[in-house]
Design a protein that fits this description.
The chain is built from eight helices and no strands. With 180 residues, it is mostly helical. α1 packs antiparallel against α2, α3 packs across α5 and α7 packs antiparallel against α8. The longest helix is centred in the last third of the chain and has 30 residues.
Length: 180
């Protein structure tokens, strides 16, 4: 079984993105003050992604393709989470920004497997990136929670998550669609 570098880069970027994303969804309500109002604020992520994802899809179709957009998601994510760490972004604005990131990277990632592997390997490619996103979903909140329990500092948690999002930018830059 041979796996090309671009698919590995996509999977790792997807994993890092989801590790950060799910951690923000997990700990965002507590950071936003707790209670039902904070839960409502965090739902903004899903509302923005729900409305924004089809729009991003149109932009991908009308532009240079999904690889460039793949980098945009973790750029937005890193900036927003770093601003959360610095305490300069209130919860509502932060969750709107996280929603924008959630519209960008997943939409681009879903558009890429067919451009990275031969048509008869697209199912494997989706399975491969999904396995990595699930790994990020498991490990990200565990690390964030351990840091929060050990240090009690959201600033530290958000800083580490912003660094992971920045790493996703670097990894995503290595995704190169194959020539057809």
């Amino acid at each position: 079984l041979r796996i090309n570098r671009s698919l590995v880069a996509l999977a790792i970027g997807w994993m890092l993105f989801f590790g950060v994303h799910v951690s923000v969804l997990t700990f965002g309500p507590k950071w936003a003050g707790g209670g039902s109002a904070a839960l409502l604020v965090v739902t903004l992520v899903m509302w923005v992604a729900m409305v924004g994802s089809p729009l991003v899809g149109v932009l991908i179709d009308r532009s240079a393709g999904p690889a460039r957009w793949l980098v945009a998601g973790p750029v937005v994510q890193a900036v927003v989470v770093a601003a959360m760490a610095a305490g300069i972004l209130p919860p509502t604005a932060a969750m709107l920004g996280v929603g924008v990131a959630a519209a960008l990277l997943p939409t681009a990632a879903y558009a890429l497997p067919g451009l990275l592997v031969a048509p008869e390997r697209v199912g494997f490619a989706f399975g491969f990136i999904t396995a990595f996103s699930n790994l990020g979903t498991i490990v990200g909140p565990a690390i964030a929670g351990a840091l929060l329990d050990a240090r009690g500092s959201f600033a530290l948690v958000w800083t580490v998550l912003a660094a992971l999002a920045a790493a996703a930018i670097g990894v995503a830059a290595f995704v190169r669609p194959r020539s057809v």
